[in-house]
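Materials and Methods. Structural model of PEP-utilizing protein mobile subunit. The 612-residue sequence of PEP-utilizing protein mobile subunit from Alteraurantiacibacter aquimixticola was retrieved and submitted for structure prediction as follows.
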Amino acid sequence: MSDAQKGFPLPSSVKVVPGTEEAQAAYPYYTQFQPGDDERFWFYNSMHFPEPMHHFDMITAEAAYCALGSFNTRVHVLPTTKGIDHRVINGRVFIGGVPVTDPAEIEARTAEFQQRAFYYYEHWEKLYDQWKDKMKALIADAQALPTPHLPDLEPIETTHTGKGVAANHELIDTYRKTLEGYFRMWHHHFEFLLLGYGAYLTFFDFCKKAFPEISDQAISRMVAGMEAEIFKPDEEVKRLARRAVELGVDQHFTDDMDIDKVLADLDAVGNSGKEWLGELETSRNPWFNVNVGDGFYHYHRSWNDDLSMPFAALPGYIEKIKAGENIERPMDRLVEEREQLVADYRELLDTDEDRATYDQLIELAHRVFPYVEGHKFYCEHWYTNLFFNKIREFGALLVEHGFFAREEDVFHLTHYELESAIVDLMLSWSSGSAPIGPQRWPAIVEQRKAAIATWAEHTVPPALGHVPDVIDDPAIVMLWGITRENLDSWLSDGTSDPNELKGFAACSGVVEGTARVIKSVAEISRIQQGDILVCQVTNPTWSPLFQKISAAVSDIGGSMSHMAIVAREYGLPAVVGTGSATLKIKDGARIRVDGGKGTVSILDNEPVLEDA
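The predicted structure was written out as tokens:
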């Protein structure tokens, strides 16, 4: 009990930052901590929500956990775990799993799981092809939604065709279809995901029992070297870099370039420039429909909305191409290493039965694993970008009618409040009187804007409540890296070497260098060549930056987190799930990353002075 006694704070002990009480109370009631929550274990989901949440952006947690829980609990019926509950305090999202502990219930759920999940495993390729068709249709539906607007008078055609519906009805219809599509997208997102983790975790558990000395990293390397759509955007940037060199327009791309000027100059230089711009358009649709973040915040814009991320990578790629360096992912090496590892460990098995089980499990893991990353392009990126841009259109309409000053202000309203503001506008348009919203919303928006800024200055504990004896939710273990061992490490904070951090060994290699502590997407531009990236979490769309950094360290994440997967695919030394690297390592400090052992050593925590 000693760990529990000294352990994490109880939810009831975490106080709302003074002056932000009204902003906290505005989050939906079902996201507020409840009296019974002190009896449960919660952890801060800094992987998906590393920054304080705008009130509208909480829909990204709500829709996701509605879908995740549905598939865990009632569709695929995972035997030992149900869904995830979420709470928000001071803008930070905490989540808690719902374990199944009754042996009789586990047995009953196992029987259901075998009927349901095994059907998916048996028909994976066919069902995944259907899934892509569903997602592309959903994206097309979102793209076809009309831009919300209110004319002064209805067009005469409304009368002469007997349409029988006025423009203000289309506002609420479009808004509700926008939300419906977003919630539906998250159901598609989780249709396969937990089965992908489950297949890998089953293989992982088999290897741990069969080969007691095997490392987590060795097992994960057995599924490396995969093709997935989420890597395609970075491949397109590399393609554009090669075309720039081939067409002789590479001199336009420099570290301090003005992107608009570059585009204008290329358009003016003749056929070679115009040809490269044509190549850019080919890449942009659809591959630049990726966000600079992980798709959970409205301000993590897509590459198509802001070209600075892909363009920032072009000079580095161009320089390496001209120097004759290979800029591709080391696919051949990864596949060769993967096949060799699979064969070597197979030879260690003693029985035909074990070898048959091993063959079956690794074959399944290879079949399902590309989905674990591939779905992100369609869901968190392409679709979510469409969704937030549609909400911006409603923001622009409300700005036009005086509800607030900027279209981005719309994201300070919850999705319920936005619907009420739309109805307010519908009523005023229909009656010809002034809407109420312009008197109500500006002060609330300013208050919530201030709260977000205040919350950003406060740190939160990594977890709350009672530490569970066992954690066997495949997503919590494989994605977030929350294990009992990790929690014990977090709880022992201060009793071990303060200059040594332990995490998951994501990708081997030892690197010493300057730490660049990045706490938000907005700070990415500070990364210099050779820096070691230290962040709460990263995602595959940061891949173009991996040519600059020499290693990576994260606060949160397990062996199957996106950062761990991407690091392995690019051969970048990495340690994930350290718990507190962004708090303990100063920006500019000198550190050593050992991606094989899963350790980060602070060699000199005083920032290295940079040349002016």
